[in-house]
Amino acid sequence: MGFVVGKLVWLVLSPGNLLVPPKFINRLPWSRGYFQTIASLPLAQGDVLPVHCFYSSVFRRYYGDGGRELPGRVEPCGTWALSSYRTVDDDVSRALGIPLAPD
Q1: How far apart are CA 65 and CA 73, in angstroms?
Q2: Could you read off the pLDDT tens digit of each residue along the chain, which spans 103 residues?
Q3: Residue-wise burial string across 34-73, b where 16 or more C-beta atoms lie within 10 A, e elsewhere
Q4: Cα(64)–Cα(73) distance, rounded to whole angstroms?
Q5: Model-wide pTM > 0.85
Q6: β-pair partners for 8
Q7: Alpha-carbon distance 2 to 8, whole Å?
Q8: Rounded CA separation 36/100 (Å)
Q9: H/E/C letters for each residue in the chain?
Q10: What distance in Å separates the CA atoms of residue 92 and residue 76, rounded to the nearest whole number?
């Protein structure tokens, strides 16, 4: 099952089949042309995770929406840090089992 945006057909995306956990990311990959916005769709019921979880390696704690501390890890759990296109590239490469880009 999928939907059409322009000439492309996309599989239905859901929080249950994320390739990588949620990330905080800056605008640099879009401004450099590494990322492209394909579509902007309204959120439907079931599109949002019930709990967003991010791990802080500095404080060794888990945080949710708005910085509230969580009692423990909730999957999928991202990192409480700003990511870049390079960290996204590494995470996607690991998830797909392909070699990381050279430094």
Answers
A1: 13
A2: 455 666 565 666 678 888 899 899 999 999 999 998 877 778 888 888 889 999 999 999 999 988 999 999 999 999 999 999 999 999 999 999 999 999 8
A3: eeeeeeeeeeeeeeebeebbbbeeeeeebbeeeeeebeee
A4: 10
A5: no
A6: 5
A7: 10
A8: 21
A9: CEEEECCEEEECCCHHHCCCCCCEECCHHHHCCCCCCCCCCCCCCCCCCCCCEEEECCCCEEECHHHCEECCCCCCEEECCEECHHHHHHHHHHHHCCCCCCC
A10: 14
Q: What length does the chain have?
A: 103
Give the type of residue at 79. T
Identify the residue whose tokens are 């430094």: 103
Copy the structure tokens of residue 87: 């960290």
| 5: its two tokens | 């945006």
